[in-house]
Fold this sequence. Notes:
The chain is of the alpha/beta class. The chain has 6 helices and 4 strands. The protein has a 4-stranded parallel beta sheet. Helix 4 (93-110) runs parallel beside helix 6. The relative contact order is 0.18.
Amino acid sequence: MLKLFNTSSNEYIIAIISKFEVMSLLIFGKDTSKYNLISISDDDLITDEDYKKFNSYIKIYFQDDIDDITIKKIIEFSKKDNLIIHCDAGESRSAAVAMAITYIKCIEKSNCKMEEFIKNCSILQNDRYTPNMAIFSKIVNYYKEHYLTKE
């Protein structure tokens, strides 16, 4: 199994990477067919043919703000496991999405509290990542408003 990033006890997210790291996986012939890709990019460096080498994928794009439709796509897609999340640099937007997904899974499993999650979040403890906390907050708040109240 491909292990690019260990999110501690998170069995859902396999990697938070850049678009160039995704391309490296494909160029070097790594078997990506077991993985589900969230692609946060607006260029054509990764082709539709490349995307088809993953089990499933969604292509979304946002910069410093994210709309409700995109958030819903992320939340629905995150019900899958073996996720690889990439943006252009693999540092901010992808890390924010990964963090939000991890927190949502934590809520679903054990009703964890935000303070405890932030304190123990391995993404925040890794110097490579600088998650966009506004994106993280918008995804989490949307989840709480639209998904927690329905259960």
